[in-house]
Design goal:
- The chain is α/β, with parallel strands linked by helices.
- The protein is 28% helix and 24% strand.
- β4, α5 and β5 form a beta-alpha-beta unit.
- The radius of gyration is 19 Å and the shape is globular.
C-alpha cells in the first residue's frame, strides 16, 4: 500500500503527529502529496563553535572574505572540541507518490531528497517540467523531500551550536531508517529500498550519511559536487550574504544573527553559520558504501567546476572514485547536464537530467 493511501484520514495523520498536514498535488501537477511537520528526537556529537556570529552585514562580508583567502584558517579556528547535543526538532516533510491509485499500490522504493544551501524542499518540485518529484513518481517511486533543520518550514534553533553537519546527518539517518522500517506513518509498509538524493550541500550531507551509515541507502544520486573546492567559496562570497533578520522582506524577522541569506533574493532561504563551519567534514571518502552512485553536475557549474565541468577532466566522473572508492563501479555513472549551472533542476536541460537519474536507478534494478 502506498504512503498516500495511508495518510488520507485525519486520525492517521494525527497518529504520526503531523502539524497542520496538507494534501495537494505537486507543483508539477502529476504527484499526490501530503506535507506537514513532524517532531524528531535526535542526539549527535556536534562541535563547540568558538566565534560569535557577525553582528553586522559588514562583519558578514569580512568573514566571507577571510574564508575565501588562500590557506584560510577562518573556519578551522572557529571549530572547537566535540560536544554532545540532544533535542527534539520540528522538520517539514513532503511525501509524494503517483496520483494513480494502481501505481501507488506497486511502490517499493522511496527517494529521500535533500536540498542544497539557501534553498528548501521546493528545489525538487519547482514547476511543470522542472519537478524531479514528478519524474520520480511517474517512474513508480515515492519521494520524501524535506526542509533541513534551520531552513524553510523546519525549526530554526541555535545556528552556531545546534545546526551543524553532525546533527543534520543524524536527522537524515533517522528519516531513512523510519522509511525503511515503515514507521514514519503508522501502518506504512516497509520500503524495501531507500535512495539518497542530494543537491550541493544536501549532496554533501547525503555523502556524509553514506559514510557513517553505509546501509541507509541502496543507491546515491548527488547533484553539484566535485573534488575542487577553490571555486565554491568564491561563489558563496558572490552571493552578497547578509544576516537573515536584516532582509528587507521581513521573512526572517526574529532569527538569530547566525542565520545568513543571499541578499536580497525573494526565493532564497537561510544557511546556518554552524553548518557552514562544519560542512568540510562531509567531503571525505565513504569507503564502507558499496552501492551504485550517480553524480550529476551542470556542465557549467561555477561552484564546483569554475564554470566548466569538463576541465581538466570530467569533474563528475572524477568525484566517484575519490569519494566512493568501493562503490559499485559497474552500476555507477556520471552525467553533465548540457548548458546547466549549479542548480540543475532549474535549467532548461532539467528534464534530460531527470531522465538520466531515473534510468540510472532502473539499470541497477531499483524501481
Amino acid at each position: 500500500m502506498a504512503i498516500l493511501a495511508l495518510v488520507k484520514t485525519q486520525p492517521l495523520l494525527e497518529a504520526v503527529r503531523f502539524i497542520n498536514p496538507k494534501r495537494s498535488l505537486s507543483a508539477g501537477g502529476k504527484s499526490s502529496c501530503t506535507a506537514g511537520n513532524v517532531e524528531i528526537p535526535v542526539t549527535a556529537t556536534n562541535f563547540q563553535i568558538l566565534k560569535p556570529a557577525p553582528r553586522t552585514n559588514i562583519e558578514v562580508t569580512q568573514l566571507y572574505v577571510e574564508l575565501a583567502q588562500v590557506n584560510s584558517k577562518a573556519a578551522a579556528s572557529a571549530v572547537g572540541a566535540p560536544k554532545a547535543v540532544t533535542g527534539t526538532y520540528s522538520i517539514y516533510i513532503k511525501l509524494c507518490s503517483p496520483s494513480d491509485k494502481a501505481a501507488q499500490k506497486k511502490i517499493t522504493t522511496v527517494q529521500v531528497l535533500t536540498h542544497g544551501g539557501t534553498l528548501d524542499h521546493s528545489y525538487w518540485d519547482i514547476a511543470p517540467g522542472y519537478s524531479y518529484v514528478d519524474a520520480a513518481t511517474s517512474a513508480g517511486f515515492a519521494t520524501l523531500s524535506y526542509d533541513r533543520l534551520g531552513t524553510g518550514l523546519s525549526d530554526h534553533p541555535d545556528p552556531l551550536q545546534i545546526v551543524q553537519l553532525p546533527l543534520q546527518v543524524e536527522l537524515a539517518h533517522i528519516l531513512a531508517q523510519q522509511l525503511r522500517a515503515g514507521s514514519i506513518v503508522e501502518g506504512q509498509p516497509k520500503f524495501s529500498k531507500v535512495v539518497g538524493v542530494g543537491h550541493s550541500l544536501g549532496g554533501a550531507l547525503t555523502q556524509a550519511v553514506a559514510a557513517k551509515y553505509p546501509k541507509d541507502f541502496d543507491a546515491l544520486i548527488i547533484q553539484g559536487t566535485s573534488t575542487a573546492f577553490q571555486y565554491a567559496i568564491t561563489g558563496v562570497a558572490s552571493e552578497a550574504a547578509q544576516i537573515a533578520n536584516t532582509d528587507p522582506s521581513g521573512r526572517f524577522k526574529g532569527l538569530a544573527d547566525g542565520y545568513h541569506t543571499p541578499g536580497p533574493l525573494p526565493q532564497a532561504q537561510t544557511n546556518a553559520l554552524g553548518e557552514s563551519y562544519t560542512l568540510p567534514l562531509a567531503y571525505a571518502p565513504a569507503p564502507a558504501y558499496t552501492g551504485p552512485v550517480a553524480i550529476v553536475n551542470g556542465e557549467n557549474d561555477w561552484f564546483y567546476c569554475g564554470g566548466d565541468c569538463t576541465y581538466p577532466t570530467d569533474q563528475a566522473a572524477a568525484a566517484i572514485p575519490a569519494y566512493f572508492p568501493n562503490s559499485d563501479k559497474g552500476g555507477s555513472m556520471s552525467y553533465l547536464a548540457p548548458g546547466a549551472g549549479h542548480n540543475v533542476n532549474a535549467h532548461l536541460s532539467a528534464g534530460e537530467a531527470f531522465d538520466r537519474m531515473i534510468a540510472f536507478l532502473q539499470r541497477n534494478g531499483i524501481s
